[in-house]
User: What shape does this take?
Amino acid sequence: MIDKFTDWLRDSAKVLHENAAYLTELDSAIGDADHGANMDRGFAAVVAVLDETSFTSVDELLKKAGMTLVSKVGGASGPLYGTFFLRFGTALAGVELTPASIGEGLHAGVGGILARGKAELGDKTMYDAWAPALDAYDAAVAGGGDLGAALTAAAEAAAKGRDGTVPLEARKGRASYLGERSIGHQDPGATSTTLLLESAARTLA
Assistant: This one.
């Protein structure tokens, strides 16, 4: 399983690199115009760590990825995604990796995002993608779905949540300074969240 999680991080880095300009374009409309560059730089640093280090457990791998993102990425995205991976990894320490336990890890990771960002549903943040993704993942697992089915459902729900940020007025972060002018723009954090979950559905299944 550690190989699959390594593949996820590498694939995420590739996808974020390919979409860096797009994410920054989204962020230039309502933020600091650095989300794509920050995510690209952070995940490139994660890949560099993967190239240099051998890991013996998934939790160790994810925690190291989280610490790397916190230390290498500026803006809000580094601490938020870094905390996600740190909490995700911590939740998986010493447990059998099943769709249910991985779901609990995802909940723990998103709990870390909420603890740091204090966002609520409808604030036009990455949580607007994460919240429906977690619900869809849980529903798939409860229905007997395997990890691939659960992650695919999560990614599809995240994409709907991402699209749903367009008509929202931002209530958190730099975008909230724009007030009504933030309406009509897709949230970059919800977009990068969706990219990560789509990558997970491809690689972890």
In short: The chain has a mean pLDDT of 94. The two ends are 10 Å apart (CA to CA). The CA atoms of residues 53 and 190 lie 30 Å apart.
